[in-house]
Amino acid sequence: MPLAAPRLADPGALCTDLYELTMLQGFFERGMQDIAVFEFFARRLPDCRNFYLAAGLEQALDYLERLRFEQAELDWLDGLGLFRRDFLDHLAGLRFTGDVDAMAEGTPFFADEPILRITAPLPEAQLVEARLINLLHFQSLIASKAARVALVAPGRRLVDFGMRRAHGAEAAVYAARACYLAGFDASSTVLACAEFGIPASGTMAHSFVQAHAGEAEAFEHFARSLPQAAVLLIDTYDTEAAAAKVVALAPRLAEAGVRIRGVRLDSGDLAAHAHKVRAILDAGGLGEATIFASGNLDEYAIRRLLEAGAPIDGFGVGTLLDTSSDLPALDCAYKLQEYAGQPRRKRSEGKTTWPGRKQVWRRYDADGRCCGDRLTLADERAEGVALVRPAMRGGRRVQPSPGLAQVREHARRQLESLPSALRGLEPAPGYPVEVSAAMRALAATADRLSGG
Q1: Counting C-beta atoms within 10 Å of the first and last residue's C-beta, which end of the chain has fewer, N or C?
Q2: Half-sphere exposure of 211 (CA within 13 A, CB side)
Q3: Do domains 18-142+330-449 and 154-322 have the same CATH topology?
Q4: In whole numbers, what is the pLDDT of the chain averaged over residues?
Q5: Is the model more confident about 123 or about 347?
Q6: Which residues form the Nicotinate phosphoribosyltransferase N-terminal domain (predicted)?
Q7: Which residues lie closer than 8 Å to 344 by C-beta, 6 or more apart?
């Protein structure tokens, strides 16, 4: 069960970029309070990603509902010498009162498709930019890579092992959440398991073996201490010799009612070791004992192991996943699309945006596979399923958020619906995303309004 209350510290309203606050003071001085529309989206997909997976909405909504400046924060801002006192007094009463429309977490998305839209008075919509990008970018980044791992290893047990090299405590916890959402089975990050109800999983470290006089003693001690989850790490010294020790130990443990659940490999040629260890375990009557592998794994390494026929039942995936090492950042943005009822469009070189409030319509073929998206204005109708749906109105959720298990099931169904080429690791032909004629016409209007 999740903890009754969140354990992660709320970083507060100062978790933002300074320019958000300097702009807010400018808006305050000019009385610019009209409704603004901002959208969060990815500009493009690199060759190493055929799709992105939306994640982080739950934390984004939590942030918006809790947004407020504490007096100590305002006093600190006052000490910078940048802000007017009447502006800081105004910030004391600032709350998020706007609307949020978003894609459900676990939904694949593509370039230019908004996964979140904020409609609120300009100062509110602007202030939240940095933290919303921070939350949505990171979990979508990790979920997108974790989904690739899950797709390449169907039927294998997958455990997030990445906490120790994640970029801080919040990153470790949110990475575990994103991995579970995308199809992992468990995490070794205890706080994430406690906070989100993720199954907890872990084995032992080499230090446990080294601290004992011998390997067999360490294995027996650990198995008797944790009989319900006796998975033994066998590569501290000599992997195959250790596997033989496990076989020799098994009958004595069985007499005590303790069953060895499996062994873990963490170094060397994992495929070669797995074949040899499997043979040793099977010959010793431990055919039901699983082999679990870890050690600098990602989707590419796991694919190579499976293609080599390695008899590995599960994988612990850590550093390369929780840092998204092959793609450490998404090319994403949170941009103003409408202000005071008029379309707004950024036309910077290489960063041009489509203006206005948008909807994404996804079409499916007779086999239930998605076959193309259409980017339209929010009030247009098109063939398919509308993906951007109400999440908040007037600063409050429109309904209780789905549980993480429900989000995970949605992600599973969504990933199954992807065309087979997108589900693979090789670069695939671009998924078709059409832009409606009305959207193009609005872009021309926005250009005229801005002097283009």
Answers
A1: N
A2: 8
A3: no
A4: 96
A5: 123
A6: 14-136
A7: 336, 337, 338, 355, 446, 450
Q: Who contacts 105 (Cβ-Cβ below 8 Å, separation ≥6)?
A: 54, 55, 56, 57, 58, 181, 407, 410, 411
Q: Which residue has the tokens 């202000």?
A: 339
Q: 154-322 belongs to which CATH class?
A: alpha beta
Give pLDDT, residue 452.
53
Amino acid code (one letter) for 28: F
Indicate whether 118 pLDDT > 90. Answer: yes
Dihedral of the alpha carbons of 130, 133, 136, 138, in degrees to the nearest 10:
-100
Q: What residue segments make up the domains of the chain, in order of their start?
A: 18-142+330-449, 154-322
Q: How far apart are CA 260 and CA 224, in angstroms?
A: 10
Q: How far is CA 177 from CA 42, 90, 174, 322, 412, in A?
A: 21, 36, 5, 11, 15
The total number of residues written for the chain in this structure: 452
| Sheet of 116-121, strand order | 342-343, 332-339, 35-42, 116-121, 99-102, 389-393, 396-397
Structure tokens at 174: 């949110």
Amino acid identity at 355: P
CA separation for the pair 446, 355 (Å, rounded): 7
Measured CA to CA in angstroms, residue 196 lies from 2, 107, 127, 390 at distances of 5, 19, 28, 23
Closest CA to 353 of 449, 435, 431: 435
How far is residue 132's CA from residue 151's CA, in Å, rounded to a whole number? Answer: 28
In the CATH scheme, what architecture does the domain 18-142+330-449 have?
Alpha-Beta Barrel (3.20)
Cα distance between residue 329 and residue 142, in whole Å: 10
pLDDT in tens, 172-216: 999 999 999 999 999 999 999 999 999 999 999 999 999 999 999
Q: Check if the beta carbon of residue 131 is closer than 8 Å to that of residue 16.
A: yes
Give the Cα separation of 186 and 178 in Å (integer).
11
Q: In terms of C-beta density within 10 A (0-12 exposed, 13-18 middle, 19 or more buried), how is residue 13 classed?
A: buried
Compute the C-alpha angle 180/2/387, nearest 5°: 50
- Pairing between strand 433-435 and 370-377? parallel
Q: 262: which strand partners? A: 231, 290
Cα–Cα dist 146/421, whole Å: 17
